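sanity check this record:
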Amino acid sequence: MALKVGDKAPLFKLYNDEQKEVGLADYGGKHLVLLFFPLAFTGVCTDELCTMRDTLPEYNQLGSSVAAISVDSVFTLARYRADQQLNFPLLSDFNKEVSRQYGALYDTFALGMEGVSKRAAFVIDAEGVVRYAEVLESAGDQPDYSAIKETLAGLQ
């Protein structure tokens, strides 16, 4: 079941691309744009994450951090982050628990793959409340960046 605006964001702890454990609580006191993406090294995912890379200062000016989650391993994510010169952490939900908690997990994805994160975007405020929630059924679509920024601006 997908999260809705006004829900308390589920707490989580995952390993990032530097093999360090990171949790939602680590972002306390700051707004967080939490992205879920299907797979590293794929076209639309690369477009999405590079868009965030290139506009990260805008999100920071709105008092927000950015983090992205996929079911890829920490090793894959480390290589992907380096290759794309991403300036925000990538978190590995290899066991698919967080994607499931956030309602952002495909049962079956392309090529018969099971348990792949859906493309999704959440804005979680400094108190851990979901202020924006977008879970996309089509992996070919990208989040509504304008709506995300609008939500963040409204939290100022």
